[in-house]
Amino acid sequence: MRVHRIAAIPGDGIGPEVVEAALTALDHLSRQTNAFRLEVDRFDWGSKRYQREGALMPADGVDTLRAYDAILFGAVGAPDVPDHLTLWGLRLAICQGLDQYANLRPTRILPGLSSPLSKVGPEDLDWLIVRENSEGEYAGQGGRSHRGQPHEVATETAIFTRAGVERIMRVAFSQARARPRKRLTVVTKSNAQRYGLVLWDEIAAEIATEFPDVTWDRMLVDAMTVRMTLDPRSLDTIVATNLHADILSDLAAALAGSIGIAPTANLNPERVAPSMFEPIHGSAFDITGKGVANPIGTFWSAAMMLAHLGESDAEARLMRAIEVVTADPTSRPRDLGGTSSTREVTEWLCRALDCDA
Ligand code: ATP
Ligand code: MG
């Protein structure tokens, strides 16, 4: 039997609720298929640890994670800790430390769900957003001077390297090639940002020559929000910078029905370090502890994790079970118009897995 070592980092807010739900589902799946087993270690890293010990994770935390085959992450962020501390102290530290430079965000309208845009149906919206995850606007470069004075200045420098842009562009073109429509849209703002994003445009054209079977085009990010809203069907795979893709993928998730269902893979495509899988939603303290968090985004992320681990049969089973759950109003969680609690959604999912066995 294949054994995969998983590091689970439930984190803050609803993170532990949705991660436990996903681990229950994965455990059910592995018993059922008998083809693989997950060895899970849980790490209590996050804002509570920060308040206790002054750091979200231990100094050698990133290195500890290198021993695992994959990481399942919940959410990080708490009302009483500044957001930039929690983000940089845990999530970004892991993504950058393990060079998970490709962030993949599939978005589609699952059975039974609908877009808030009445004209948009499941056949219109099936996207894969590829986000540059290691540099760009979130490179953490900049500084502040003359703090608190009227002439205070803060700089936030975006870094785009040829190597960084080439590698994300290759991932994007390869992902586009692997999908039926073989279509890629490269998003920039190269009319206003005349250095880094002109480099993006140039490198896109260069890498495109390696993928003659992929049809590609370019969009400015502002026009892209309009196209996603008014002409979603014309899009398939989308690649954008760290900041732009962060914003576009929230829009995408909302257009597909709810941020509660949207998954993310932070990939180290060369597999020299583990990749990390997480729902795109945050810690959502307004519903924490009420047992109503939608675990489907974490189920879907767990399915992406299975695919990455080579368990494609289990991935397909889990995706089919997710679709059974969303298709039936009685099994849906509250944010999708149903009444099921996190635990009930998980039970429905396990039942759907049993029926598929
Ligand atoms: P962050 O600061 O990390 O973005 P957040 O606490 O602002 O986190 P979001 O993920 O941005 O939370 O979500 C915004 C709101 O959407 C939440 O406050 C919550 O009401 C709702 N929401 C998010 N995720 C879920 C979920 N899994 N199930 C149900 N509702 C959710
Ligand atoms: Mg938020």
Automatic annotation (TrEMBL):
Which key words are in the record? Manganese, Metal-binding, NAD, Oxidoreductase
- InterPro entries reported in the protein's UniProt record: ICDH/IPMDH, IsoCit/isopropylmalate_DH_CS, IsoPropMal-DH-like_dom, TTC_DH
Taxonomic superkingdom: Bacteria
Task: Provide the Isopropylmalate dehydrogenase-like domain boundaries.
Answer: 5-349
Pfam families named among the record's database cross-references: Iso_dh
PROSITE patterns (UniProt xref): IDH_IMDH
Mind telling me what this protein is named?
D-malate dehydrogenase [decarboxylating]
Organism (species): Thioclava marina
